[in-house]
């Protein structure tokens, strides 16, 4: 695995796109505040327990915190998105990820995986449950649904050991305690909880699972 790109961005107010219609995405003409738009950074970037330097979240009820310190997204998704959306210049960071990663995706990343990048240690805490900001940022009504239906949603990482990251670094897998629990499988179980009661209980009991997901699965926290 390799860290292809790093993106950061502070929350800011964005104007409603010109020509956007009133509806599910934009219910008023007022600017909306988001940390969605992120830009690539060169060189080494300091990583704290809950954030990369220069990064932030607008709504901390649903984003950020120790279990969602970093959002990772598979670099392999971009060629397909660029073709499907007819956006050949779609850049890394287009899905609000902090880390764009080569050599791994939702089908191969597992809950509890520990990644080593130099002195830094990261752990996969939970899948990313995408929100409507994906569609709002790109002003495409169907984009959120497409992200979920294609399984290209990304995953969150917690920071086990702070340090600094740099694009181009190799990522080694230091531990894999739950090879049966891929990010893709965890999302499938959450989306179809009624069909998988035994798996819901097993998933909620994983000690590495983020508290937000555990609570939503009914596992306390």
Compact overview of the structure:
This protein has six helices and twelve strands. It is of the alpha+beta class. It is globular, with a radius of gyration of 17 Å.
What does this structure look like?
By secondary structure, the protein is an alpha+beta fold. The protein has a single domain, classed as PK beta-barrel domain-like (M1 Pyruvate Kinase, Domain 3, Beta Barrel), CATH 2.40.33.20. The chain is built from six helices and twelve strands. The chain has helices spanning 77-84, 133-138, 143-150, 183-191, 197-204, 211-216, and strands at residues 2-8, 12-14, 32-34, 39-40, 45-47, 70-74, 99-102, 114-117, 120-127, 155-161, 163-165, 172-175. An eight-stranded mixed beta sheet has the order 4-1-7-6-10-9-8-12. Helix 1 links the parallel strand 6 (70-74) and strand 7. The protein is globular, with a radius of gyration of 17 Å. It starts with a strand and ends in a 5-residue tail after the last helix. 36% of the residues are buried. The model has no long low-confidence stretch (mean pLDDT 93).
């Amino acid at each position: 695995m390799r860290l292809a790109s790093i993106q950061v961005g502070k929350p800011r107010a964005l104007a409603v796109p010109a020509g956007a219609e009133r509806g599910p995405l934009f219910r008023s003409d007022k600017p909306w505040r988001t940390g969605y738009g992120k830009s690539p950074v060169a060189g080494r970037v300091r990583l704290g327990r809950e954030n990369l330097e220069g990064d932030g979240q607008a709504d901390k009820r649903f984003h950020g915190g120790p279990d969602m310190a970093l959002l990772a997204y598979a670099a392999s998704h971009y060629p397909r998105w660029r073709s499907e959306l007819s956006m050949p210049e779609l850049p890394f960071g287009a899905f609000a990820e902090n880390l764009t990663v080569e050599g791994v995706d939702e089908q191969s990343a597992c809950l509890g995986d520990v990644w080593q990048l130099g002195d830094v240690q990261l752990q996969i805490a939970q899948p990313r449950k995408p929100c409507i900001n994906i569609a709002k940022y790109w002003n495409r009504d169907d984009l959120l649904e497409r992200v979920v239906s294609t399984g290209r949603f990304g995953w969150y990482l917690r920071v086990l050991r702070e340090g600094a990251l740099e694009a181009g670094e190799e990522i080694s897998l230091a531990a894999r305690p739950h090879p049966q629990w891929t990010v893709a499988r965890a999302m499938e179980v959450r989306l179809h909880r009624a069909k998988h009661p035994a798996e819901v209980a097993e998933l909620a009991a994983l000690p590495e699972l983020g508290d937000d997901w555990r609570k939503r699965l009914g596992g306390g926290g």
